[in-house]
Every structure is written in C-alpha cells, then in structure tokens.
Q: What sequence folds into this?
C-alpha cells in the first residue's frame, strides 16, 4: 500500500458575487482581447512637460488608477516605479533617489508600463517578473501567476522532503519530485533551489507554460536537474506515467475553481490568465481527482 | 527523533488539517505552536546566535494579503508584512521584497534584533556593532583628512622652492 505524499493547494471559495463581465474562453480569444484593450485604453495622462520625481510619478499614477477603478492603485504604481528604478519595492529604494528627478527615458518607461496597468493587466505581467520565495521569475500572459499562498505549500513540501531524507549519509540524493501544472515553474524551481540533490519532473498541458518554466530554469541555473514535459493529465495519463518513475513526492497547485465561478473573476484574471489554469469543472475537482488517481502509480512506496 | 523534527511534524499535522479547510486568510504556519516548542529561527547573515527566540504566541501579524476570497481567484500584490510583539508593543514593518514568505522571515529577523536591543539595552550586540561601525568610519575619515593635510603641506613646500 503506497503511502503517497500528495500536496495540493486546496484554497477553494465559492464566489457568490454577481458581476457581469466579458467572459473569455480559450487562449485565442485572450490574445485578441489583450490587443483590443491596449488600443481601447484612453485615459493615460500625457507625459509631463517638466521633469518629475519618482514620488511625484507614483502619486500621479495612483490617482489615475483610482479614477479608472484599477484595483490596488497605490501598490500598482509603487511596484512599477520601483521596477523602473531597478528595485523590487519602493521601500527598498534609497530615500534620496525617490526625490531625484527621473530621466526622460525612465519617465517614458514609467508611462509605458503604467498605461498597461490601466487595462487591468496584472502588475506581474506589466513588469514581466515577480518574486516567489527567494526566486525572481520571468512572467508573461497567459501563463498563470504564482499566488502567495503557494509559497506556504512549498515550505510544507520542503519540510517533509528534508525529514524523509534526514538520517543517513547522502540520503538526500536521489529524491525526485513530480509537479503537475508547473506554470511558470515557481514550485519546481523553488524546490530545486532549496534542495541541491533533488530532481524534478514538471508537467503542464500548455506549451507556453513549458517554455516559460524552461526559461526560468535556465536563468536560475537549475535546468540540469529539471525535466519538463508538455502533457495533459486529463487526456494522456499513460504518457505521464511512462515519463515519471517512482517519485518521493507529487506536488500541484491545480485548477480548482468551480466552473460557475469563472464568470465572476476580476478583469486581471479573466482578461490575461489562462482559464484552463483555473477551471476545475463543476465541482472544481476534475483535475484534483485525476491527480489523486495517478498519484499511487507515480509515487514510490515511501512517497 | 530530534526536537526539531518533532516540531516540524507537529506543524505539518496542524497545517494539513488547516490546508483542507477553506483558508480565511490565516496561514497554517502561523497557528500557535504547541507549548514548550518555541519557534527558533536561523540567525541570518549577521550570524548572531544569542538573539532572543521568538514565541509565535506573542506575535500578531497583520494579514495585508487582504480579506475576502483568496487563492487562485484573485491577484493580490500587496505583501507588506506588519508584525507586532504583543508584550512589548514593538512593531516591525517589512516590505523589502515581493514575496510574502521572505518578508515574513525578514520581519522576524528584524524583530529579534529589536527585542535584543529592548532587553539588553546598551549591552545588545546590535548596538555594540553599530557603535563599532560608526567609530571605524570616524577613524577612517580622520585618517583620510590627515593624509590630505600632509599632501597639501608637501605641495606647499614644493611650490615654495
């Protein structure tokens, strides 16, 4: 009887709000929606005639975002401007730099990026990167943006893997992990970075995700211990099983929303992120059930 | 089994139960630890091993991730961590990175340093090191000024010849 260790992110909420919105189904429609939105966006303030400081720019754009109903107006403007200044957060920029005048080039950059945010593009896609634990990942639509709660999932997995390999010389070597639905590679790469002896098989049904995970892995120097496959656990279970041997752990942050809730998502999500990464079917459990069915076949006896 | 492993497995069993329920924003890892097992953090880059140990029971963390539906259904970018130490009232705010996890850890490191100063006052190694660094900088400045002065005098004697 295999004692599998299966980690699934299970935060599920039924969304009972009733917002009417543009429903997006399918990746092709998503692409058309992005370009349409970038053309439709009016309301971008003109570039300032005089030079302004970073703080003034942040204030100006915060106000603009508020006027346009963009969520997290203050955070959005601050992250974007910090990024243009080469930092992760405004709080980590030297105070003197915040009151210096921005160069023309940097001002234009701020304007270009903030204008993207006006069309409700998530900040992570606007600046094309975000942090996940101690990694900085490259991000682009429609590949799913890692959620902060998933950082805790990784922490749990690490604790378990370390405990299992604990006593015994060199026992940490030779552990393998399978990730279903790797997206940008957040979970797999975090595990690889923290456990130098770990090897990971990462799967995703989306070629975009497979490509992005590969890119992030190479940038982080973790490509050699990672094998990435484009595979859909729902459709080709057999190929999945043939690819992955006996793993110590199976990890996933699978789609789990109820299909009926897909229509009430905020624009940041329905306009830009792959709905296939979110929709878990009528009860939200389609993918989860399939993963649990495959788990005993993928995991080793101690997995 | 070593105490650390026992602790980790207890956290895990608590966490597993909590992970299955709908999260109301409360992180499983921040539930009160069982009594008698304080949360011991790695000392961090300063390699100070005698900073006070934090007891999660005494800490209050503001969930700036926001209320309401969480998980996949939203895209929240606010991840500033505000940590309060209830007995002393000391508050630490950390928004150094864009990772909640890292900000939480750094906030705790900073809290340990602040508590060290609070409890040990002048004797706190934090303050001692700060003083040493200030003194070193003053010494350096003094030496540079001396050197510049000597150069100036030398140039003067040269121009006199």
A:
């Amino acid at each position: 009887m295999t004692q599998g260790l299966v980690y699934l992110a299970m935060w599920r909420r039924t969304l009972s709000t009733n917002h009417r919105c543009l429903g997006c189904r399918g990746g092709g429609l998503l692409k058309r929606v992005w370009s349409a939105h970038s053309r439709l966006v009016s309301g971008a303030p003109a570039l300032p005639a005089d030079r302004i400081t970073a703080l003034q720019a942040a204030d100006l754009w915060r106000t603009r975002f508020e006027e346009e109903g963009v969520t997290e107006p203050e955070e959005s403007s601050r992250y974007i401007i910090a990024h243009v200044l080469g930092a992760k957060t405004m709080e980590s920029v030297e105070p003197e730099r915040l009151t210096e005048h921005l160069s023309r080039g940097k001002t234009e950059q701020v304007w270009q990026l903030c204008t993207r945010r006006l069309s409700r593009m998530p900040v992570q896609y606007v600046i094309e990167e975000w942090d996940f634990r101690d990694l900085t990942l490259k991000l682009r639509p429609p590949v799913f943006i890692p959620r902060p709660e998933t950082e805790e999932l990784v922490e749990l997995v690490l604790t378990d893997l370390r405990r299992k390999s604990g006593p015994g010389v060199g026992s940490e070597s030779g552990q393998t992990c399978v990730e279903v639905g790797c997206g940008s590679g957040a979970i797999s790469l975090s595990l690889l970075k923290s456990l130098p002896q770990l090897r990971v098989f990462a799967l995703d049904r989306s070629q975009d995700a497979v490509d992005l995970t590969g890119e992030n892995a190479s940038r982080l120097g973790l490509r050699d211990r990672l094998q990435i496959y484009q595979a859909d656990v729902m459709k080709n279970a057999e190929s999945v099983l043939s690819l992955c041997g006996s793993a110590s752990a199976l990890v996933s942050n699978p789609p789990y929303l109820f299909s009926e809730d897909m229509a009430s998502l905020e624009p940041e999500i329905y306009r830009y992120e792959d709905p296939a990464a979110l929709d878990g079917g009528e009860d939200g459990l389609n993918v989860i059930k399939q993963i649990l069915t495959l788990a005993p076949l993928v995991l080793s006896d101690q997995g | 089994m070593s105490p650390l492993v026992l602790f980790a497995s207890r956290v895990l069993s608590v966490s597993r139960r909590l992970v299955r329920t709908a999260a109301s924003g409360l992180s499983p890892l921040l539930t009160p630890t069982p009594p008698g097992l304080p949360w011991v953090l790695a000392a961090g880059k300063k390699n100070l091993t005698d900073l006070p140990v934090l007891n999660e029971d005494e800490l209050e963390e503001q969930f700036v991730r926001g209320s309401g539906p969480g998980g996949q259904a939203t895209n929240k970018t606010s991840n500033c961590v505000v940590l309060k130490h209830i007995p002393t009232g000391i508050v630490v705010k950390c928004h150094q990175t864009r990772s909640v996890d890292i900000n939480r850890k750094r906030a705790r490191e900073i809290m340990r340093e602040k508590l060290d100063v609070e409890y040990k006052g002048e004797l706190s190694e934090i303050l001692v090191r700060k003083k040493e660094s200030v003194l070193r900088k003053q010494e350096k400045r003094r030496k540079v000024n001396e050197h510049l002065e000597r150069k100036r005098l030398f140039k003067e004697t040269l121009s006199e010849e």
